[in-house]
């Protein structure tokens, strides 16, 4: 804290505006982009909310090389899950074999694979659960911003 702001408030307190901003950050999920994503630590990040937002690691900065991230969205019985892309920019390659985003009913069953810089069409699940898997190859060339998607069921 610099001298000017120290004079404005007693040490150790946040103003009401700062508190509201922190709450907004928490509920919008944006704070996740500031810390390493659990989804990229080897365990899938579980989502059971009716709607939510998922970001590539380091968003809105470029994603790091050599990452594997996975998210598992579990709906209620009979739910259909719709995934819509808000931002999308992954290193392009033939058949998306270098960097890719995969969506499917399990982490091994791929129904949808995308890369490149065009916003892909929405994905509508045939089941009440979906896996989303993101892979970036070890090369540090060709990095891109990544993705921001929302899901709703
Ligand atoms: Ca890459």
What does this structure look like?
The protein folds into 2 domains: about 1-35, no CATH class; about 35-150, Sandwich (Jelly Rolls), CATH 2.60.120. Helix content is about 10%, strand content about 30%. The N and C termini lie far apart (about 45 Å). By secondary structure, it is mainly beta. The chain has helices at about 5-10, 15-30, and strands spanning about 45, 50-55, 65-75, 80-90, 100-105, 110-115, 125, 130-135, 145-150. The protein binds calcium ion. Calcium ion binds next to loops.
What key phrases describe this protein's structure?
single chain, disulfide bond, CUB_dom, 2 domains, 9 strands, four-stranded antiparallel beta sheet, Sperma_CUB_dom_sf, 2 helices, Jelly Rolls, binds calcium ion, globular, lipoprotein, 153 residues, five-stranded mixed beta sheet, mainly beta, disordered N terminus
